[in-house]
Amino acid sequence: MNAEEKKNLLASLEKSLIVSCQIQPTDPVYSMDFVLKMAKAAEWGGAKGIRANSPDQIKLIKDNVDLPMIGLYKIFSKTSDVFITPTLDAARQVWAAGAEIIALDCTDQLTEDGRPAWELLPVVQKEIPDALIFADVSNYEEAKRAAEMGADMIGPTLYGYTKETKDITEPDMRSFARMCRDFGDRAFMIMEGHIYTPEDAVKALYLGADAVVVGSAITRPHLTTKRFTDLIGGLQDNWRTAERESINHLPKESK
Asked: What family, per the record (predicted)?
């Protein structure tokens, strides 16, 4: 995409809902047919974009749903906590599958090579210049660095998924509002993570979000059910624990 096409794509997402349609082999609803139905349902419901994981799921959705795609490739490792598009090769596969936007881990977490995850950002910018880059961060400082490095889109996607934030279950709206105020003139700001109701989404837009990504609250019925049963059971369990375990128990070849 050239600069004008990138600008127009971002404009098409302004003040909209983007639905994250992802599925893992350990999910009870796992099937490629299901992930496609999720994307079609999101399109029918008025979503303006899709976020999807892995080249095969990205391509399937892009072949059948006419919406902009935020693509990522979750590759898990026993020696690193970085799993969102951790390498240039992974980014290239996401791009080849049809995603216009590539999501990268831009936190301070270390990759398998012992390098901060954010160091991949300028590499992908150079090697895949036609792509828009979505920086997934976990705090204000990481968002600031991503904005300074020229990320096109920034969101606190990994807030709650790093060692420092792993016990978090609610969005930090105050920090996000600060990100929007300070970096909104340089990057397209997206609220992603821990958004479970339409009211939360509207609140994020009011605080400065250019768009909102919602995932499990819409597309992962088993986790939606778990949130209900955990609360009904007196909060003796935490549905997020089940979510993390379902990922951590994936066979390495499936990750």
From this structure: Belongs to the NanE family.
Q: Which helix (H) or strand (E) holds 19?
A: strand 16-20
In contact, 19 and 214? CB cutoff 8 Å? yes
The model's pTM is 0.91
Domains contained in the chain, number: 1
Strand runs labelled E in 32-170? 49-53, 69-72, 101-105, 132-136, 153-155
Asked if residue 245 is part of any domain, the answer here is no
Q: What is the pLDDT of residues 19-46, one digit of tens each?
A: 999 988 888 888 999 999 999 999 999 9
Under the phi-then-psi rule, with left for phi > 0, alpha for psi from -120 to 50, and beta for the rest, what region is 191? beta
Pairing of strands 16-20, 153-155: unpaired
pLDDT in tens, 174-227: 999 999 999 999 999 999 988 999 999 999 999 999 999 999 899 988 888 888
Report the CATH number at residue 194. 3.20.20.70
What is the residue range of 54's domain? 3-221
SS3 label, residue 190: strand
User: What totals of helices (H) and strands (E) does the chain contain, helices first?
Assistant: 11, 8
